[in-house]
Input
Amino acid sequence: MTVDYLNTTNKYQPWKMLACLFIIQVFMALVGRSLAPLGPLFEEDLSLSKTQIGMLPAALFLGQALISIPAGFLSDRIGTKNMLILLTLCLGISFASISISSFYPLILSLIMAGGFGYGAMHPASNRGVIYWFPIRKRGTAMGIKQMGVTAGSAIAALVLLPMATQWGWRPVLLVTSVLLIVTGLFVFRLYEDPGTVKSKPSANSAHNMMASIQSLLKNRLYLMVSVSAMALNGTQMILNTYIVLFTYEVHAVPLVAAGILLVISEIGGSVGRIVWGIISDTLFRGNRVIVLVIISIISSVSALTLFLLPVGTAFWIFVPVVLFFGFCISGFNGIWMNAVTEFVPENQTGSASGFSIMLGSWGVIMGPPLFGLIVDMQSYHTGWLFLFIGLLFVTGILILVMLWGNKNLRARE
Output
């Protein structure tokens, strides 16, 4: 595929398009990530176990895992503009249907269908950033767009949970889903694909894709980073899914205040997505893996801290713990996406990112249900201890990648 960047007399046009992508990213996350803050209300209304609560985000990211590679090819075929309206309708209609459903298996199926739209947002919006911005501005633009995910999740906890506590989760989810669709239609009218982009997919693109995947599966360092990202992704969703329930049920933090902790975590993640990138570019001269090691260490200490806090711990003590936890575990995504490209040839960076996203999604699929099962069988404290041990294991893997990959990294400097 060849790409010609748009030469426009309006220098603000790319930033207008980025604003469109950011807005739709916020609203997609507002709806898709609403499962975490609304979890306690789902649990009460549908009489769910902690394991079943964990299955809710798992279903969303199962949809993302299944759609990630096909969505990339579809985005190249029909363009970002058309993808935006399709994925908006997919997520909006699916989650609006959840608001009138009470049959748990049907709800899981609808969440997975919504995950198709939610997961397709990443390759579609990434394509928009790549085509509208040259390399020298693309990092900043991508960071701004990615902030839409954590911003939408924070708004969901800050706004949707208090509203749902007052009026019920069903009408709130319905109205939010409809608002997403309206926003999608609005953005569809404003957004434009660059007119000079020329996409020339190879006639044998399916064969090329399979050959690329086979090559990636033989790349030891790439796979080790991707498997580590799988665990970090799972930890991120465990924190988002259970921090409200944990502090509310174990430490008697009021429900709305517990929701504020999720907001704090996501604010930390929003800042982290930019700060960790700056740190890796300046302090560590582009070495992403060492930053992932630091993130993993701090995250493991945070999980251990949640394990050690005594029952009845006050709200204000949780604030710095959750802030640092979120700063690391919700802020690592950009570093991960850059890291996986450091160990592959430049002509494989696209497929490497897509395949790693698919692998990373499985951490979100398996992590929350497994954590919920541990809580059902033992306790939250056992769950946090299990998470601490798992993150130590991930740290070890990343240290090995850092040691074995020094030669690769020096070659890229």
